[in-house]
Design a protein that fits this description.
Layout lengths: L2 H6 L27 H9 L13 H13 L4 E5 L2 H12 L5 E5 L4 H10 L6 E5 L5 H6 L5 E7 L11 H10 L3 E5 L4 H4 L9 E5 L13 E5 L1 H15 L5 H11 L2 H20 L4 E5 L9 H7 L6 E6 L4 H10 L4 E2 L9 E4 L14 H4 L1 E4 L5 H13 L2
Parallel strand pairs: 2-3, 2-4, 4-5, 5-6, 10-11
Antiparallel strand pairs: 1-7, 6-7, 8-9, 9-12, 11-12
Helix pairs in contact: 3-10, 4-9
């Protein structure tokens, strides 16, 4: 399906809403029926009709069609946050006594979910190095393993997994696979092509793209999506609002342009930092120095604007000084909007907890937004000079 068609036409039956170029926001909680028979039919099959906006809504369905097509999936669901798009399918697919294999250091709230929430319901998780091979993953599989949770690339230290090899391994053992594809977006990586069952993204990032929406998306087969919809999705009620669905439809129009600009500028900044004498290491999957560079090139079409780096000076006060001196990078979590951001790992720990032998503690994550490269490089230069 052509990308331009997906972003600008798919799902938009304009003759149904006065031929408006932009689809309306169906800001309604409820839908009426003319007969008891119609009402009964809707109650019996809410997945396929409009009954109550906690389930389906016309604005949301336009977005679902576009997101499923972008992921090359049969169907998709949208959620009120990225973490909901990850946790709800896991709750839908697992039962007491099941076990999960998860990559080390996933998104922080997913880590807490696996460590603190699932054990209360009798589900245990084994953590595997995020750059481990499929052969290493197989060593941790046992008869109770029901899910492999991946994050490729990781969004702080950028380890990748071989999606095709792990998907083949999981199918051999009849295990579900779920991958967080937030880093790449569907334009730069399509995990379903490699056999992954479920793909989630924090739609807050590139898909929404303007730092004004919190959302999540999950895509997969029609069978799996319907199973998740009819159980935990409807019971937990983490539905995206029609207003935010409309904002995401708006944002998708410019997704390719925003990603291209962010990627081009990011590559220039990565090269600048890689050559700077004050920088010890740059972590960016498409840079030749990245240890999994070949795997990244094989299964990704691009990188976007997110990377991390380390200073040669590992004193936490110097790391803080560098970040505090930045003026054109906002210090904040998340990424994918128009604005450039910086997030140091030390912000998440106390100075007493800082361990100079742990490389992860030294990382400074940078998101490159839509500003010009020279504008941002000048800011990095003055901050580095201040060290």
């Amino acid at each position: 399906m052509d990308l331009s068609y997906i972003l600008h036409e798919l799902g938009e039956d304009r003759e149904h809403y006065a031929n408006a170029v932009v689809p309306p926001i169906y800001q309604t909680s409820n839908f009426k029926f003319n007969t008891v028979a119609e009402f009964r039919s809707a109650l019996a099959a809410e997945f396929d009709t409009y009954l109550y906006t906690r389930g389906n809504n016309p604005t949301i369905n336009i977005l679902r069609k576009k997101l499923a097509a972008l992921d090359q999936a049969e169907d998709a669901l949208v959620f009120a946050s990225g973490v909901a798009a990850s946790t709800i399918p896991i709750l839908a697919l697992l039962a007491q006594g099941d076990e999960v294999i998860c990559v080390e250091n996933p998104y922080s709230w997913m880590s807490r979910f696996f460590k603190n929430v699932l054990p209360r319901f009798g589900v245990n998780t084994t953590f595997v190095p995020a750059d481990a091979s499929a052969e290493v993953f197989e060593q941790y599989i046992n008869p109770n393993t029901k899910l492999i949770y991946l994050e490729s690339p990781n969004t702080f230290s950028f380890e990748l997994q071989d999606l095709k090899a792990i998907a083949q391994l999981a199918k051999k053992h009849r295990i579900y696979t779920l991958v967080d594809n937030s880093y790449c977006s569907p334009l730069y990586q399509q995990p379903h092509q490699y056999g992954i069952d479920l793909v989630m993204q924090s739609a807050t990032k590139y898909l929404a793209g303007h730092s004004d929406v919190v959302a999540g998306v999950l895509s997969g087969s029609s069978t799996l999506i319907k199973k998740i919809f009819e159980s935990e999705y409807m019971n937990i009620g983490a539905i995206l609002s029609p207003q935010n669905a409309w904002l995401m439809i708006r944002s998708l129009r410019t997704l390719p342009l925003r990603l291209e600009q962010s990627s081009k500028t990011c590559a220039l900044i990565v090269e600048y930092l890689y050559q700077h004498p004050a920088v010890a290491e740059v972590l960016y999957p498409f840079h030749h120095s990245f240890k999994q560079f070949e795997l990244a090139k094989r299964q990704m079409q691009g990188c976007g604007g997110l990377f991390s780096f380390r200073l040669k000076n590992t004193n936490p006060d110097k790391i803080e000084l560098f970040c505090n001196r930045l003026r054109r990078f906002s210090m904040a979590v998340s990424w994918g909007g128009h604005e450039s951001l910086v997030m140091p790992a030390i912000a998440g720990i106390t100075k007493e907890q800082f361990d100079p032998t742990k490389l992860r503690h030294q990382l400074i994550r940078v998101y490159v937004g839509l500003e010009e490269a020279n504008y941002l490089i000048q800011d990095l230069e003055q901050a580095l000079d201040g060290l």
